[in-house]
Write a structure and sequence with these properties.
By secondary structure, this protein is of the alpha/beta class. It is about 50% helix and about 20% strand. The chain starts with a strand and ends with a helix. The structure holds adenosine-5'-triphosphate (ATP) and magnesium ion (MG). Adenosine-5'-triphosphate binds near residues 11 and 13. Adenosine-5'-triphosphate (ATP) binds next to strand 1, strand 2 and helix 1.
């Protein structure tokens, strides 16, 4: 499915060249959950950004090849990559709030991806049910632009009011009133095919109350719900592969378990491949079939998860495993309890 061979990515910095990736070899097979573990700064995220071509301008892939379903995408054009991101590979990032657009509702954000990658299905659904493909709101501009106009109107209104020249502020008040009136008059438009598909995408990630969530802005949702929205977006393009870069690090433990379970369930349902990046060995042990251990820009060990956990070969893997806090009996046998007696 995804084959990475001898990948080297360098960063140009003021202090010289940083060799972030130093020959990474990695293969993710069809329909498996593959774990990539390693300590902070070892190059896990850079590997995933190199594959998706989302590296910053100072970075360059200097060597190696990346193949997706047999297609060489090492030098793919930006246009092709835009199709691949979302369409072939879904992405989930660590911090959902910074990855979501703050001025667009969940409905608009998922809808955007569906319109880009699922155009045919949308039209079929619309024809089947005899409903419009898109909800056509009259008198509307792009959400970001509308947000700017509103902000400017409020600013001028406040300014003129403060200066005691309320009359000059009136046109801005009318403008704001127009936006609210427009939304009020058009609030009951029938569901379009796009709306239905957004609701469907949200129920696939087991979102409670999808209708309410669809018209919310990202900051109105809890961290776990935001991550569910991210997963819904990653799945909206019907990608066959999912790259999750530390999907649960920003969440508390119970929500972490729910999100991991959700990823596992979806993988089982759809048979997609998942590349799960994490620095948490517990997460890997629970979720992944195969694992690669990364250290200082290289893969130092790769194999089935149970084999690596029971029989680590590389020194780094051994120390990584040794650093997990022990529970149960071994904890009771901690040296100080023997030395000082039970307390
Ligand atoms: N913008 C950058 N400029 C220079 N060097 C960078 C830049 N981004 C990353 N690097 C280098 O790449 C290395 C790997 O970074 P990367 O973000 O992939 O680590 P990571 O394994 O994802 O860590 P974490 O677990 O903290 O997310 C870093 O140690 C750093 O030296
Ligand atoms: Mg990272």
């Amino acid at each position: 499915m995804l084959e990475i061979e001898g990948l080297e990515t360098h960063f140009k910095t003021y202090d010289g060249v940083v060799r972030a990736l130093d020959g990474v070899d990695l293969t993710v097979e069809d329909g498996e959950i593959f774990g990539l573990v390693g300590e902070t700064g070892c190059g896990k995220s850079v590997t995933c950004y190199s594959v998706l071509k989302l590296l910053p301008g100072t970075a360059e892939v200097v060597k190696g090849s990346i193949r997706l379903n047999g297609e060489d995408i090492t030098d793919a054009s930006e246009e092709r990559m835009r199709k691949i991101r979302g369409g072939k590979i879904g992405i989930i990032f660590q911090d959902p709030l910074s990855a979501l657009n703050p001025v667009m509702t969940v409905n608009e954000q998922i809808g955007e991806i569906l319109a880009l990658h699922q155009d045919e299905e949308l039209r079929e659904l619309a024809a089947d049910r005899n409903i419009p493909t898109y909800r056509s709101k009259n008198w509307s501009l792009s959400p970001g632009f509308e947000f700017t106009i509103m902000a400017v109107c409020f600013a001028f209104l406040a300014l003129f009011t403060m200066l005691g020249q309320f009359a000059f502020g009136l046109p801005f008040l009318v403008m704001i009133g127009f936006f609210f009136l427009r939304d009020y008059l058009q609030r009951d438009l029938p569901d379009s095919a796009l709306d239905l598909m957004v609701l469907d995408a949200l129920s696939r990630v087991k979102m409670p109350d999808p209708r309410q969530v669809a018209c919310s802005y990202p900051h109105e949702l809890s961290g776990g719900m935001q991550q569910r929205v991210m997963i819904a977006m990653a799945l909206a393009g019907r990608a066959r592969m999912l790259i999750a870069d530390e999907p649960t690090t920003a969440l508390d433990v119970t929500i972490q378990a729910q999100i991991l379970q959700l990823i596992k369930d979806i993988q089982k349902e759809t048979g997609m491949s998942v590349l799960l990046i994490t620095h948490d060995l517990g997460v890997v042990a629970e979720t992944c079939e195969r694992v690669a251990v990364m250290y200082a820009g290289r893969i130092v060990e790769q194999g089935p998860a149970d084999e690596i956990f029971t029989n680590p070969r590389h020194e780094y893997t051994k120390s990584l495993l040794a650093s997990i806090p022990k529970g149960g009996e071994e904890r009771l046998k901690a040296p100080h309890t023997e030395e000082y007696g039970a307390i």
